[in-house]
Amino acid sequence: MKIKILFCILFLSAECSFGQIIFEKGYLITNENQKIECLIKNNDWDLSPTMIKYKLIDNEDIKTGNISTIREFGIYGYSRYIKATVKIDRSSTKLSDLSQSRNAIWNQEQLFLKVLVQGKANLYCYKERNFTKFFYSLTDTLIQQLMFKEYSVNSHQMATNNDFRQQLMREVSCENTPLTTIEKINYDQNELERYFEKYNACEKNSIATTNTKKKLGKFNLRITPGLNYSSLSLGDGNAIKTKKYFKNEPDFRFGLEAEYILPFNKNKWGVTFEPSYYYFKGKNPLSTSFKIVKFSSLYFSIGVRHYFFLNNTNKIFINGIINSITRIDLNSQISSIIGTLYIRHKPNLAFGVGFEYRNLSAEFRYYTNQGALKYRSDWSFEYSNISFIIGYKLLRTGDRK
Asked: What pLDDT was estimated at residue 374?
């Protein structure tokens, strides 16, 4: 319990001290058409924002702007958002709640749209959780949604309204654009960006610019050797259920961790997969029931990691891990007066906090109880451990920007 409280305190301290996302050079335009150079808190918005925090360049006071006061804002070299009043179709995308109508159900709303491509033809995006819509406009037209809708034909069949392809064919196509090219386009950001860029490039006097950085995930591969400090208690199944305690000396552990850094929120979130080897051997000379406990296994775990950046080379991180999603048992057993007892490993949770400097990292990780006895459900078996892990990156792709 004390270990869990300690990890909660460390997490809250890190969140308060290092969870801030940096302010970057940008601008905003007010409803009165006044352009203000400022520093904007870059949240690397994966979902469309409704407000922003910013500071004037010569003032440390943090201000808040929202859709009622700002008509446009941007971070130089990174992203640009404009306020627009548009018609948007909010038909459900859940399979259990699909509309039975092929046609759009329009709502008029005022939204911040992200500018993806700018030129004679402009491409925009609006995104909420599990909801993405794309919009477009030409030099002399209003912003319109590119029409895409999944709907229900009957209780067993679903269909798709892909009218956005007809919109592209009528209004955003060059003379030499093959019909098959448009017919193959999916309602996907990368595909639409490429199409609009090609269209603007083929139009005379049109300069095509992409207003967002291409965001790609980052991959890390590191070795993770370390030391395990483990403890084990056994109950012999009697009415009194006397517990016997076994503690081992620090044991070596070894792992190989693959990490994928998600391409949003300024590279602050990662997903990990780690095969690792554990070994435990303990004795209790005072026990008459149990003599020796030993087990070794190869575990496979997945987890989520969150980073708190101190600067470009130093960062604190926390982990939440599901351990033993599958494992290979390498002879796990207990020697007792009634014979050999066998250990049944079960999935468990782990929580870690660590520090990373360039390619090196150090982490303390706590594992919850992760076992039971086979064929002895009335006996208690409690095994947990704390690991000190050193990591070294063997491979990394991309850098934090």
From this structure: 59
Q: Are 356 and 324 in contact (CB under 8 A)?
A: no
Task: Give the C-alpha separation, 138 to 131, whole Å.
Answer: 24
The identity of residue 24, as a single letter, is: E
Q: Is 97 found in the same domain as 50?
A: no
Range scoring the smallest mean pLDDT among 66-80, 174-188, 330-344: 330-344
Report yes or no: 51 and 68 within 8 Å, Cβ to Cβ. Answer: no
Per cent of the chain over pLDDT 70 is 76
Same domain, 158 and 69: no
Domain holding 62: CATH number? Answer: 2.30.30
Same domain? For 55 and 100 the reply is: no
Q: Which residues contact 13 (CB under 8 A, 6 or more apart)?
A: none
pLDDT digits (tens, 9 = 90+) for 24-69: 899 999 999 999 999 999 888 889 999 999 999 877 889 999 999 9
Question: What type of residue sits at position 21?
Answer: I
Note the pLDDT tens digit of each residue in 270-329. 999 999 887 777 666 555 555 567 777 788 899 999 999 888 789 999 999 998 756 565
CATH number, position 294? 2.40.160.20
Q: Could you tell me if 390 and 247 lie in one domain?
A: yes
β-sheet bridge partners, residue 220: 259, 396
